[in-house]
Q: What sequence folds into this?
């Protein structure tokens, strides 16, 4: 299994912590998923509610790696400042770097992303950049010091699956030694299995589990699909072909006409 | 003095960032702070002097995807 900045994960499943009906459902989904990584964010805290403190206790008890994000940041400055605040609060060098460039699709601003990634890696961060499948951008992120890339499958929260199979397959082929994580847009376990069959190293998702009728059951379904897809990728899938070939031997067939 | 704390205007008597957190009931909370858009590390809060009109952000762990 691929390592992520020197950390080997027990499973190839990274799971978000947002949008669950309750903290109890969130914890149950994590237990069933056996996810190795939980993504978290930073938001304004009120001394009256202290909601963040309760949430942190819940996450700490899950016993997983914590990957803070810069969700909602639209500029390099916002993302870099948020990353610094996250490093202090969560006591980790890991940062899921998001610099959003377009509101309808939440598509990354890849120019700002590369700039922010360079600033943060030079400052000792271990950056997980939320990016597109663009090969040139991927190369520039690696030049900026990233050792992990997280291309989108589809727009965040859309559940559309892998929108650009060619692009993702090409990305995998061009960067065989880089840890690649499909991040965002997955809706069904079959999407996750497909990502793993393409040779990706992990998947990160949130909405598909949190918004399921039974989040814990869906978490288990995704975990199973991720395992199946990874096993298929390592087992050497057959090459597809356009024409049929009989699987039953032709030699020895009776002449009955 | 008047400060903007997490987007809300308030009159405070706290001179330092540390004192402001104390007044907000967040002295020992797991939070990160920024003033006027710049990160202020926890170790600097006790000496960081606030000025009238400063915009303070106090952020804590929250759900994220």
A:
């Amino acid at each position: 299994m691929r390592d992520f900045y020197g950390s080997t994960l027990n499973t190839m499943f990274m799971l978000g912590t947002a949008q669950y009906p309750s903290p109890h459902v969130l914890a149950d989904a994590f237990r069933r998923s056996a996810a190795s990584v939980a993504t978290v964010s930073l938001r304004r805290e009120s001394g009256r509610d202290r909601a963040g403190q309760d949430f942190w206790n819940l996450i700490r008890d899950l016993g997983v790696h914590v990957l803070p994000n810069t969700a909602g940041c639209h500029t390099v400055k916002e993302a870099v400042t948020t990353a610094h605040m996250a490093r202090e609060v969560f006591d980790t060098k890991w940062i899921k770097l998001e610099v959003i460039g377009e509101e309808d699709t939440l598509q990354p601003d890849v120019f700002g992303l590369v700039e922010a990634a360079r600033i943060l890696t030079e400052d000792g961060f271990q950056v997980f950049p939320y990016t597109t499948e663009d090969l040139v951008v991927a190369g520039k992120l690696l030049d900026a010091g990233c050792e992990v890339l997280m291309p989108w499958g589809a727009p965040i929260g859309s559940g559309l699956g892998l929108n650009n199979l060619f692009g993702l397959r090409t990305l995998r082929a061009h960067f065989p030694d880089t840890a690649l994580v499909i991040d965002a847009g997955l809706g069904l376990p079959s999407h996750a299995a497909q990502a793993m069959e393409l040779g990706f190293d992990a998947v990160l998702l949130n909405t598909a589990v949190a918004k399921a009728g039974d989040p814990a059951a869906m978490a288990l379904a995704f975990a199973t699909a991720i395992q199946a897809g990874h096993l298929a990728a390592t087992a050497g899938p057959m090459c597809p072909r356009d024409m049929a070939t009989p699987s039953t031997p032709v030699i020895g067939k009776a002449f009955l006409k | 003095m008047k400060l903007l704390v997490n987007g809300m205007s308030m009159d405070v008597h706290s001179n330092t960032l540390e004192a402001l957190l104390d007044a907000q009931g967040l002295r020992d909370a797991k939070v990160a702070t920024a003033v006027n858009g710049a990160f202020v590390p926890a170790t600097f809060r006790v000496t960081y002097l606030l000025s009238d009109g400063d915009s303070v952000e106090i952020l804590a762990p929250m759900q994220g995807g």
Remarks:
- Helices of chain B lie at 17-23.
- DSSP finds one helix and five strands in chain B.
- The two ends of chain B are 38 Å apart (CA to CA).
